[in-house]
Amino acid sequence: EIDNEPFARTEIQTMASTFSDQVAPTGPNTPENDPDREEAQIKIRNFFESVQGKSFIIRHLLSGAGMQLNGLQGTVVGHDTINLNASKFDVTEQLLRARFHLRLEKTPTRIVRIRASNLNFPGNVLDIPSQTRLDDEDLLSLLQTILEQSSELLQSEREDVKRRIRFTKRCLEASEIPPPLPCGTLMIPDHELVNHSLLLQTTRICRFACCGDSVADLRRFGEGLLAPDALHSGAYQVRDVQAQIYNRLSKW
């Protein structure tokens, strides 16, 4: 199946390419020179092993055939053949395209191949439409305050965090609210990921589907995260600007 991004891939690539003042990549990371190689390999292996036998709901497939699978529940019984114990681990095209094999509960004889980014745990899924909106003026002020006070966030070396921050800053300079983005997007086109650390590349693989509608709209963050345990779930890494905004709003 295709990615769970609700926006066209070309839009994401265009948006990412507008960051012309980003720090230029130093060149492709190879297994030999990447300091995070072992950690990335362990992360990938643990992720693939941890979902075996677990029950999931299919989410956010966009093709005609895929949309008919959305909402169905099944159990992971395997995954595509990949080498999780290679002596010189690398994030290959085969790994990026790897799918889990899900046996559907309603039709046990049928097994479908689904990416992790289109699967989520049944208890994390909530499809109630958002009803609240933060006032634009209040949100602009809050965003500015967060960027001024989040020194640890601003010092991050992760390329995806840097892009989120620069994207947000550019919007604030124009007195605009950052537009909605696909939930979980790294803001880095797939073809550019090879220029970044293996650990960052694994982030593209080791993530589950959005628990809501797969759209990160800052105006809706007054509600907090939709899933009851999303903030503490191992499936979610609270490291980006939007999570910081949620943390501040929860105390506002």
Q: Could you describe the 3D structure shown?
A:
- The protein is 31% helix and 10% strand.
- It has helices at residues 9-17, 37-50, 64-67, 93-96, 136-149, 151-154, 159-173, 198-203, 241-249, and strands at 55-58, 73-79, 100-104, 111-114, 119-120, 181-182, 215-216.
- The strands form 2 sheets. The chain has a 5-stranded antiparallel β-sheet with strand order 4-3-2-1-5, with no helix packed on it. Strands 6-7 form a two-stranded antiparallel ribbon.
- Strand 3 and strand 4 (111-114) form a beta hairpin.
- The radius of gyration is 19 Å and the shape is flat.
Uncertain regions: pLDDT < 50 for 5+ in a row?
1-28, 224-241
Helix coverage percent:
25-40%
Largest sheet, in brief, is: 5 strands, antiparallel
Strand percent estimate: 5-15%
The outline comes out as flat
Elements, N to C (H/E): HHEHEHEEEHHHEHEH
Radius of gyration, rounded? 19 Å
Could you list some keywords that capture this structure?
single chain; 252 residues; alpha+beta; two-stranded antiparallel ribbon; 9 helices; 7 strands; 31% helix; disordered N terminus
Quick overview:
The protein contains 9 helices and 7 strands.
Blueprint (SSEs and pairs):
Layout: H1 9-17, H2 37-50, E1 55-58, H3 64-67, E2 73-79, H4 93-96, E3 100-104, E4 111-114, E5 119-120, H5 136-149, H6 151-154, H7 159-173, E6 181-182, H8 198-203, E7 215-216, H9 241-249
